[in-house]
Specification:
The chain has 178 residues and is an alpha+beta fold. It contains five helices and nine strands; from the N terminus they run βααββαββαβαβββ.
Length: 178
């Protein structure tokens, strides 16, 4: 099973984020753009895992999520990893939030206790808009210049997601505290 942990955003916010980035999609023909319905914030990518992991991971997520309060994600700048000179991933940034950082930390600790390890890179919260297949970044850089997405989405759970056949499905939603 191909699994990941996500913060899913409200459908209306996904729709507005997608619409706000139309100029980018028009400027980047060699980009595999993420479908509107799949926009989410990945907390941790787990890759291929056995089905037997779902129950203990769900319990660990319930405990970790129960330590954090519901939060609002504030979206803003458009960017690229590593940058727009050599773009590989185009994204919408999420404003820094100590509650989000703590939630990410608690999820990492819960995953580490199950033998899933800790991510070695700094946490850079974002919504992936697309993966660049080949592009020098000029057109994307121009389209992104001055473009901001001004949206806020409430987050009520940490979701254990299954990725299969190009579709995403929530296997378990670990509720955050109100």
């Amino acid at each position: 099973m191909r699994l990941f942990l996500a913060l899913n955003i409200e459908p209306e916010v996904r729709k507005r984020c997608y619409a706000a980035t139309q100029l980018l999609r028009a400027a980047g023909p060699d980009v595999r753009w993420v479908d509107e319905t799949k926009l989410h914030l990945t907390l941790k990518f787990l890759g291929e895992q056995p089905e037997s992991l779902v129950a203990p991971l769900s319990a660990a997520l319930d405990a970790a999520a129960g330590q954090s309060r519901e939060l609002d994600l504030v979206f803003g700048a458009i960017g690229a990893f590593p940058n727009f000179r050599r773009p590989r991933v185009v994204w919408i940034g999420v404003a820094p939030d100590p509650k989000l950082e703590l939630l990410h930390h608690d999820v990492e600790v819960a995953c580490d206790a199950l033998g899933l390890g800790v991510e070695g890179r700094p946490f850079r919260p974002h919504l992936t808009l697309g993966r660049v297949e080949k592009d020098d970044g000029r057109a994307l850089r121009e389209a992104a210049r001055g473009l901001k997405v001004r949206e806020v989405s409430g987050v009520r759970s940490v979701d254990l997601m299954l990725s299969a056949g190009g579709q995403y499905r929530v296997l378990h939603a670990a509720a955050l505290r109100r």
